[in-house]
Design brief:
By secondary structure, the protein is mostly helical. It has one domain. Helices cover 55% and strands 0% of the residues. The protein has 7 helices and no strands. The model has no long low-confidence stretch (mean pLDDT 89). InterPro entries: Haem-bd (IPR025992).
Length: 143
């Protein structure tokens, strides 16, 4: 038991990098698409922590090995879609990402259940889901 405790304490000295930025780039999805306030609120609450350059970390992000899991999760989320880099995407890539957003929301794949388990406010209610899907579909059709 002492060895486990010592190991747990020891891994606390291996910090993770923080995905935090104090600026919103000109390439941000919300800025370049003039997103309605209601859609903006839903997307920032349910998507931006894992899909932007600014994660609002919970208190437990300082505890290893949870912090490693969070860092890996955010890194992979940003590799798939980074809303802060939206304007840098080609129209083909934007179209693909919008299709993916629609599909994953319709199938209940996003936001991830593991995220909404602790961040209950990120879980999409039916009306929020429909609001986002309607707006994203219109945006996709306009490309």
């Amino acid at each position: 038991m002492f060895v486990l405790l010592l190991g747990f304490v020891g891994i606390q000295f291996f910090p993770t990098s923080q995905n935090q930025s104090n600026t919103i780039p000109k390439t941000d999805f919300i800025l370049v698409n003039d997103v309605p306030k209601q859609v903006e609120r839903i997307i920032t609450t349910s998507c931006y922590d894992c899909h932007s350059n600014n994660t609002d970390y919970p208190w437990y992000n300082k505890v290893q090995p949870v912090a490693w899991f969070l860092e890996d999760h955010v890194t992979h989320g940003k590799e798939e879609l980074n809303f802060n880099e939206w304007a840098d995407y080609s129209n083909r890539r934007k179209n693909s990402k919008l299709k993916s957003i629609i599909s994953q929301i319709e199938n209940g794949e996003m936001p991830l259940w593991s995220y909404t388990l602790i961040h209950r406010e990120a879980k999409l209610l039916e009306d929020e889901r429909n609001t986002v899907l309607d707006w994203v579909s219109k945006l996709k059709d306009s490309l």
